[in-house]
């Protein structure tokens, strides 16, 4: 059975109006920080997720995701850092720092886009070894992919189905279902609703993303159905 932590983190993978230049805020126009609260079935808030995008000096982007969720018995405190180069956002590196109860693991994946190869090394615990695997042209990690998805949506396109990497490789498909209202600060807001399916070596699940219709296509709400009910990630304004 796929763990809640694994589904939660992968869920954070995935035509806006023309505005004046000084109104274009958020990714991919400016550096950005988004904060979400993790809401358990029944309405209880269990923690938060913070996503940061920072424009790099070489023209690429650095992405960061930190997750703190107070699940009983096994609390989650993870951090993920990715770097992507060029206008196509091809991945350069992905580092996963996992703290799952008493288990702590740090691993780093380096992408060689010219050779269509990637190497994953376990840094902690020591002696964790390394592995190499093939990647498609302009291979992307899951964190970078969710920013690519936003940029594609902002240009009126649904991101194409394909493989992304988050340790293992996962086939991701996003399907646009149309406009849907969601409550934000007590008011109904029109969003673009997408169903996302993810399939990996030992995972097969789906979730929903509700994108704002701003230029940055900001994700307002993510719903993750689990056996215990639906867990939501709600943007904190």
Kindly give the count of domains.
Answer: 1
Measured distance between first and last alpha carbons? 34 Å
The succession of helices and strands, N to C, reads HEEEEEEEEHEEEEEE
- Biggest sheet character: 14 strands, antiparallel
- Label the structural class: mainly beta
The helix count comes to: 2
Q: Can you give the helix content as a percent range?
A: under 10%
**Numbering strands along the chain, what is their spatial order in the largest sheet?**
8-7-6-5-4-3-2-1-14-13-12-11-10-9
List keywords for this structure.
237 residues, 2 helices, 14-stranded antiparallel beta sheet, mainly beta, single chain, 14 strands, globular
Structure explained in plain terms:
The structure is a single chain. The chain is mainly β and 237 residues long. The protein has one domain. The protein is 9% helix and 55% strand. It has helices at residues 4-11, 142-154, and strands spanning 32-39, 45-55, 61-69, 76-85, 90-100, 103-112, 117-124, 130-134, 162-166, 168-184, 187-199, 204-212, 219-226, 229-235. A 14-stranded antiparallel sheet has the order 8-7-6-5-4-3-2-1-14-13-12-11-10-9, with helices on one face. Strand 10 and strand 11 form a beta hairpin. It is globular. The two termini are 34 Å apart. The model is unreliable at 14-22 (pLDDT under 50).
